[in-house]
Q: What sequence folds into this?
């Protein structure tokens, strides 16, 4: 008769019947494996120059109440020692040409301090009033008296990027800028549009948005020494170079803050990326408690295209994003409040009660998984659809991927018989003229039309057909989009929505100087600002702007090919559900 293995009986015999001398080797082996797994986790989560420095710490006290929080606390800066200890490959190509990452950065040296103000929920980057670098040589300058000389700042108007990583993700590209001779930039919204270009930034403020208190790691990048903008250099951004790829991060690897309460600012936000312990286990065991690690920005140095090395793999790996899962806010009641999850510690429950009392007008919401969101949206789709819906996506490769994501969603949910997505391929806004509209959008009787055209406009295409077209300046981009929108109105096209342009990670072509590709956040953020502002004009009130930044932004650097989001991926699925709900049911 066959013997059946019983895990319960085996465990009982091991615990109570085996002598210690037979159990001891098992204990030793288990301890060795546990240590090895822990060490690998620490190693994978650090950059090469900080392996010996990285320790998971909480450098902020565990405040029981907002009233216990200090007025401010410092945020650790990345030291010059960290930068100089890097062992980098040769950054000059065989022709002796500067490939863009050989530059020494000035931005990091011009920062005085970075401080966190817990009660206000903001992070402040304070700049020095003068630079320690010689504008000609980029090195410390010494006068005839042997003393170090000061110079006017090189980076007068930087472009910074920020991300908080912890229980949830929060990101920021739109900093509030305060100038040395002005209280705030003239448009007053922390954006890129400025009436004057000669001002020098004194400090930049990030008012962060997190749905839950707790410890969050802070990463701040200095992407541009001097920002681009609609009124900067006549809106021309060609030949503007990014900062050195290995000097982008200006905060230390251990930099962290303790968020003491929620700071919901953007009413357009419809969800968050949440850390899931079950996704973070390297051994696939959801019962193993994993430590939350800082989510460092993914990028591709110029020497790392198709190169398999530890240096390159650490910077281009997408493994860092695996622990995060997207959740929608449950907006059935159209409430503008913010949610707090149910799995609180006692301290967080007290904080929730305090915060709810302090903000009596807010109603707290609950998280909704992407699966639950899909069930809800598709159920509503089936119950309200009376004739087949045609969704037309106007654009190039990003719209093609989105069309594929939508049709996969319809097949998986068994709704392909009542709704279908189509691609209307076009690369530039100028191409959507009257002839295109008649021959495509009107010809196919599109129920809803979703337009997103901006990737080719910001690239320096080597395609023979388009190589003569330079990156489209901001004023020209605005004019092309405005003419496109006017043509749509003149032909009475209804159901038109303009989707925000996807942000692209920092790939190797964008780090070259001059760049071979300008699709980085500083440019694409201005494109999106232009599109949003156009939809707010009275003449285009029938055309809406769909902002998917709350989905794309926190994971902006996760695209596997440094450009597109796979149709089968979680980002594409979440974006598809949000757009579908917005265009069909008006939940924007």
A:
């Amino acid at each position: 008769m066959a013997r059946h293995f019983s895990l319960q009986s085996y465990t009982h015999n091991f615990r109570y019947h085996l002598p210690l001398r037979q159990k001891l080797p098992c204990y030793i082996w288990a301890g060795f494996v546990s240590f090895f797994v822990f060490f690998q986790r620490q190693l994978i989560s650090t950059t090469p120059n900080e392996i010996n420095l990285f320790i998971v710490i909480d450098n902020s006290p565990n405040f029981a109440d907002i009233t216990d929080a200090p007025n401010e606390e410092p945020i650790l800066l990345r030291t010059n020692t960290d930068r100089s200890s890097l062992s980098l490959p040769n950054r000059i190509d065989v022709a002796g040409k500067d490939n863009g990452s050989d530059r020494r950065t000035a931005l990091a040296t011009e920062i005085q301090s970075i401080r966190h103000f817990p009660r206000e929920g903001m992070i402040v980057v304070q700049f020095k009033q003068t630079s320690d670098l010689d504008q000609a040589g980029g090195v410390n300058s010494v006068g005839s008296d042997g003393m170090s000389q000061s110079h006017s700042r090189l980076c007068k108007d930087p472009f910074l990027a920020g991300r908080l990583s912890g229980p949830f993700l929060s990101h920021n590209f739109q900093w509030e800028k305060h100038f040395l001779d002005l209280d705030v930039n003239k448009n007053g919204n922390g954006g890129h549009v400025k009436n004057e270009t000669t001002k020098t930034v004194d400090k930049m403020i990030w008012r962060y948005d997190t749905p839950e208190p707790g410890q969050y790691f802070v990463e701040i990048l200095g992407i541009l020494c001097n920002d681009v903008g609609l009124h900067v250099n006549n809106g021309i951004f060609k030949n503007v170079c990014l900062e050195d790829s290995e000097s982008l991060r200006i905060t230390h690897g251990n930099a962290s803050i303790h968020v003491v309460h929620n700071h919901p600012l953007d009413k357009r936000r419809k969800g968050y990326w949440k850390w899931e312990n079950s996704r973070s286990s390297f051994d696939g065991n959801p019962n193993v408690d994993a430590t939350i690690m800082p989510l460092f920005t993914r990028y591709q140095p110029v020497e790392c295209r198709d190169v398999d090395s530890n240096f390159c793999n650490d910077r281009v790996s997408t493994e860092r994003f695996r622990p995060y899962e997207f959740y929608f806010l449950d907006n059935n009641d159209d409430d503008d409040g913010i949610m707090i999850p149910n799995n609180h510690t006692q301290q967080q429950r007290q904080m929730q009660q305090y915060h709810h009392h302090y903000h009596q007008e807010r109603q707290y919401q609950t998280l909704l998984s992407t699966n639950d969101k899909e069930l809800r949206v598709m159920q509503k789709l089936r119950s309200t659809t009376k004739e087949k819906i045609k969704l037309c996506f106007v654009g190039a490769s990003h719209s093609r991927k989105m069309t594929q994501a939508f049709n996969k969603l319809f097949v998986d949910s068994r709704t392909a018989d009542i709704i279908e997505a189509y691609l209307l391929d076009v690369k530039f806004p100028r191409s959507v003229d009257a002839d295109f509209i008649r021959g495509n959008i009107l010809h196919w009787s599109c129920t809803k039309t979703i337009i997103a055209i901006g990737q080719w406009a910001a690239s320096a295409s080597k395609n023979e057909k388009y190589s003569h077209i330079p990156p489209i300046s901001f004023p020209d981009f605005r004019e092309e989009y405005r003419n496109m929108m006017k043509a749509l109105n003149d032909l009475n096209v209804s159901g038109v929505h303009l989707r925000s342009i996807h942000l692209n990670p920092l790939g190797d072509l964008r780090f070259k100087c001059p760049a071979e590709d300008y699709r980085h956040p500083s440019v694409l953020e201005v494109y999106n600002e232009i599109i949003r502002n156009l939809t707010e004009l009275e003449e285009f009130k029938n055309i809406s702007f769909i902002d998917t930044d709350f989905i794309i932004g926190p994971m902006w650097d996760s695209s596997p090919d440094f450009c597109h989001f796979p149709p089968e991926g979680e980002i594409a699925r979440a974006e598809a559900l949000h757009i579908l709900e917005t265009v069909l049911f008006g939940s924007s």
Observations:
- The mean pLDDT is 78.
- The CA atoms of residues 49 and 86 lie 6 Å apart.
- The radius of gyration is 26 Å.
- The longest strand covers residues 214-224.
